[in-house]
Design goal:
Elements lengths: L7 H16 L7 H8 L3 H8 L2 H15 L16 H18 L1 H10 L5 H19 L5 H23 L8 H13 L9
């Protein structure tokens, strides 16, 4: 997955946005505050990003691109191993950066419903749907669709609990793992031929 190309000033803006999101939260990100931190004019920010929401979405997308440890496409099923192992490798790759940066996960959740947020949702789907399909490629297509759909809704619900403070960020992966295990019990990848 290639990183979006930005000018030096735009990169300074994106770093300033991430810094504010991590230290002060979503509502603290204001054009003037970012301008001061990034040492660029507000005009440059408006010309590059259009508005606050697009600027935040761009910063979060850039952060997500930079924090994917390895290409998710590399997560392939291991013949003879349970499907849940492959799915959990994928979910760990997705959620371990968020465990280290929970305020950024909160910011992504907040940004999804604002202008530019659809880009974050699309980015996530483009990045991880191929990996989910790859892990489940040797299963019945209807089963794979059902598992994918169920996991999407489980993760959405867990993020809602995280947003309201009812679930700590470190509580997400254990629940996802239990769910994955229940959904895939006794299913293994067929041996390689």
């Amino acid at each position: 997955m290639s990183l979006t190309t930005h000018t030096r000033g735009e990169l300074a803006v994106l770093r300033a946005v991430i810094g504010l999101l991590e230290t002060e939260g979503y509502e603290a990100v204001r054009i003037r505050a970012v301008s001061a931190r990034a040492h660029v004019s507000t005009r440059t920010i408006y010309q590059s990003f259009g508005n606050r929401d697009e600027m935040i979405a761009s910063a979060l997308q850039q952060w997500m691109q930079e924090n994917i440890k390895e290409p998710v496409e590399a997560i392939a099923p291991i013949p003879g191993k349970p499907i849940d192992e492959g799915l959990m490798r994928l979910f760990r790759q997705i959620f371990e950066p968020w465990e280290r940066h929970p305020r950024l996960l909160m910011a992504v959740d907040a940004a999804r419903s604002r202008p530019g947020g659809d880009r974050l949702v699309s980015f996530g789907k483009r990045a991880f749907q191929p990996a989910i399909r790859q892990v489940l490629r040797d299963t019945d297509p209807a089963y794979a669709r059902d598992v994918s759909e169920i996991l999407y809704h489980v993760v959405s619900g867990l993020l809602g609990q995280f947003r309201t403070g009812d679930l700590p960020v470190t509580g997400l992966l254990p629940i996802i793992e239990r769910t994955v295990h229940r959904l895939t019990e006794s299913r293994v990848h067929p041996p390689a031929e």
